[in-house]
Amino acid sequence: MTPSDRTRSGEVQISTDCWKAARDADSESKEEWLTAKRAEAQQAAVAWAKQFDMPQLEGPEKALDWGERSRHQLMTAAHTALVVEGSWDEADWAELEEKARSITRAGWWIDQRDAEGTDLLELLDAAGEADRGTENPFR
Question: Percent helix, strand and coil across the chain, each rounded to 5?
Answer without folding.
Answer: 70, 5, 30
